[in-house]
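Step 1: inspect the first sequence and its tokens.
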Amino acid sequence: MGKTLFERLIAGELPTEIIFQDDLVFAFRDINPKAPVHILIVPKKAIPRIAESTSEDQSLLGHLLLKAAHIANLVGLEKNGYRLVINNGHDGGETVPHLHCHILGGRALSWPPG
């Protein structure tokens, strides 16, 4: 199996608007935004989905969530709030088999989401 779309973005093989990156995560604007601010934050380690993470991934998953909050603050979402979403599997809305977290904000978000 070849690289996922996210692995290709991380490798710089495809253009994207990078918002943040460090040794463990890569964040960029979603090309099909569902809110005025829609950023994806992706671990650089290729984990297909949250259900396939292991105890070895615990610190990476914590880092992912802490950096999601940091990025939300960087783009000005801290005042009015935002939503973090992790999709898992087809029925959960997963379209790329590489764990990622959506940061959504810039407007009031309704519930339930789908």
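Step 2: inspect the second sequence and its tokens, then contrast the two.
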Amino acid sequence: MSLKIDQDHSRFRNIVRRRIRENLRRYISQGELIGRQGKDVVSVPIPQIDIPRFTFGEKQQGGVGQGKGNPGDPLDGHDDGQDGAGKAGKDPGEHILEVDVTLDELADILGEELELPEIKDKGKSRVISVKERYTGIRRAGPESLRHFKRTYKEALRRAIAGGVYNPAAPLVVPQHEDKRYRSWHQEREPVANAVIIYMMDVSGSMGDEQKEIVRIETFWIDTWLRRHYPGIESRYIIHDATARDVDRETFFRTRESGGTMISSAYRLATDIINRHYPTNEWNVYPFHFSDGDNWSMDDTLTCVALLKDELLNSVNMFGYGQVESPYGSGQFIKDLKEHLGNDERLVTSEIHDRDGIVRSIQDLLGKGK
């Protein structure tokens, strides 16, 4: 029976994965999953999976609950499928099933659908992971760790030594003193670790819609990178003419105005990396989102110099996503391509609207660095 249940559950999970893949691009562009995120899982609305239900016969056929009734009689169970007044209908309603999916499963589906490559990290860091490994035998322990063969051997050895073992009737009954249990010790080993540094332009030209696009895209970038780096950290920088190191909530809720000096964010990111994330121990992923409107060409050249001399030498990759805004010039991405277009460590992407989020994720993560 349990095997049958396991088979049915596996089949259901495969159906769910297929439905998620079919609707994933809509989920990404609309941001439906972000608000449904729990601690370790995401509730995914899966349309078009029929739920088993009772089907009632037509009224003309008679039966319990049909025809006129007396006061106090139970009402019939026929549902017209509407919340309020209206004519009765015979068509079934739409069934939406919410299924809990782990973030790891969601990341795998994202990678399969967008054909993202596996990320090869830069090596081990000093971050330590503790693992338990069974290495020996001891006389005490929980029954779940009892070693059957060693216990039987001890019982057999005692029976032979005591002269009670009969080869013709080889019955061996382990006693309390015969029991042996597996023992373990903890091994400490280094594991790969990573930090994501998100930078966003919050000047007057970045409106609520542009910030929402950034919010959706960073959620999926987070989901994918966390699949590869369990110990990942996230840092957040906002900037207009100056840059600030902030928390996640401030990053997405700040309303600013004024001019833009992108170099302020790049200087702050460089300082954070140098002080907290040495490149021989950390995999570093900065992502900068802006509408491409910078204060001056001089500041743009300063940004290019910071990238060449500092940032690109310290990171796995540097991603720049330019969100289209009716108020921004969009010039910055052109300048980056002109001065650093041949550097594979710099990856750029243009995001025209929400429908462009999927392509942007492919642009930024498609090289698997």
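Step 3: confirm your contrast with the notes below.
Residues 241 and 261 are 5 Å apart (CA to CA). Residues 2-30 form the longest helix (29 residues).
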